[in-house]
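Standup notes
- DV: blocked on the single-chain target, sequence here:
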Amino acid sequence: MIRRDDAMGSIAAMAAAHNNWGRWGPDDVLGTLNFIDEAKRVEAAGLVRTGRTFSLSQPFDTDGPQKGWRRRINPVHTMTDTGTEAEFGNQGFPHGIGGADDFIAMPLQCSTQWDGLGHIFDRGKAWNGRRAGQVVTSEGDQVTGIQTAAARIVTRGVLLDVGRALGPGLGSDDGELPDGFAITTEHLEATIEKQGPGSEIRRGDIVVLRTGQYARTRRQGWGDYAGGPAPGLSFSTAPWLHRSEIAGIATDTWGFEVRPNEFDTAFQPLHQIAIPNLGLYLGEMWDPEQLAASCAADGQYDFLLTAAPLPITGAVGSPVNPIAVK
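- DV (later): unblocked, structure below
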């Protein structure tokens, strides 16, 4: 279903064949997060065996991947009160008490984050077939703002370590896929088979996909991590994303899908299917390295995952500190 010279036609055909509009009613604002219910969270809680926790977040600091594209910059952290002011006693507090305060300025999608349902449109339509201009205005996302997901994302997570599963066969002893490598459904299924039964994907899961690019980047320098060539999902995986009924999928890359994209002229065509047509939450720039090492050591690739976005009213994305508990 990839016609390299016809991105628009391929996208239109894929959207028509794989679409969740109306599945949860005309007023739905959650998309695939509807697959996470109370029973799913109870199932996920049962996966906790040792209590070990893993943060899947990159650092939020000035040494980040952003280079200014579309006004995306790295976080700017500023202190407004420090110990120096406290020592000099000029903070205006009584009886010797002092304190420190700070703030941060950053794009909401500059580091580890979720793409909300108002982030991407398909030919002028937002999630569930709404007009894009009626959903996201200068005041923000009026319908599917990221705050709607604030209490939803607690579920079973599954690591698919495609880098370790396929890397050695591609000449990578480090378990890292090369930039530009398109991960197909066959690659996903081969990874699941290699990892074992605990990696079976079920309704309501969140898949954490490790390509190994983040590990390579931190070893070699950011380079073109933000927006440049990367391993990632092939456009051809859209049917798998649809039929698997996952609640979300997150990767260790900037853009989730393979870059360069698989059409002669295109920009993130799988986003165009996943978010506005499937209602699928996408996570980007996650750091699964410590979790992946643990999974490789003990053979347990599923875990309790909590990944709540900040409830920023009207936002189309949010920073997140995902926590995996094994």
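- Follow-up: The first strand starts at residue 53 and ends at 55.
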